[in-house]
UniProtKB/TrEMBL annotation:
<protein>
    <submittedName>
        <fullName>Cytochrome B5-like protein</fullName>
    </submittedName>
</protein>
<dbReference type="Pfam" id="PF00173">
    <property type="entry name" value="Cyt-b5"/>
</dbReference>
<dbReference type="InterPro" id="IPR001199">
    <property type="entry name" value="Cyt_B5-like_heme/steroid-bd"/>
</dbReference>
<dbReference type="InterPro" id="IPR018506">
    <property type="entry name" value="Cyt_B5_heme-BS"/>
</dbReference>
<feature type="domain" description="Cytochrome b5 heme-binding">
    <location>
        <begin position="42"/>
        <end position="117"/>
    </location>
</feature>
<comment type="similarity">
    <text>Belongs to the cytochrome b5 family.</text>
</comment>
<keyword id="KW-0479">Metal-binding</keyword>
<dbReference type="InterPro" id="IPR050668">
    <property type="entry name" value="Cytochrome_b5"/>
</dbReference>
<keyword id="KW-0349">Heme</keyword>
<keyword id="KW-0408">Iron</keyword>
<dbReference type="InterPro" id="IPR036400">
    <property type="entry name" value="Cyt_B5-like_heme/steroid_sf"/>
</dbReference>
Length: 118
């Protein structure tokens, strides 16, 4: 009787830990992942529109004819309020200055909301 009970218990544990997760993973459909930059980059903004976003609580900048909403990053910016010097304006020169590490060039795309109308 004990052998049957142990065998049954092992069978249930096997099903819980091996069989059921495999069944669930096969039924899950792969999800398409798109970045915010890809979704928002289709929009374009005039310089006048960007200029309206010139505050700590609403901060957009222009870098190489792209528009970035960096509001959520203002408080985290290692250079303090330097990011606000060009809020609502072109920040290309400051962005490509010697003070920035190469990782900043990778992370900026997360903040892209569109193109600058030329």
């Amino acid at each position: 009787m004990d052998v049957i009970l142990v065998t049954l218990l092992l069978g249930v544990l096997l099903a819980v830990f091996i069989v059921i997760p495999r069944l669930r993973s096969k039924s899950d459909k792969p999800k398409k992942v798109t970045s915010n930059a890809q979704n928002k980059a289709a929009k374009s903004y005039s310089k006048a529109e960007v200029a309206l976003h010139n505050k700590r609580t609403d901060c957009w900048i222009i870098i190489k004819d792209k528009v970035f909403d960096v509001t959520s990053y203002v408080e985290e910016h290692p250079g303090g309020d330097a990011i606000l010097a060009h809020a609502g304006d072109d920040s290309t020169e400051g962005f490509y200055g010697p003070q920035h590490a190469t990782r900043v060039f990778e992370m900026i795309d997360d903040f892209c909301i569109g193109d600058l109308e030329i």
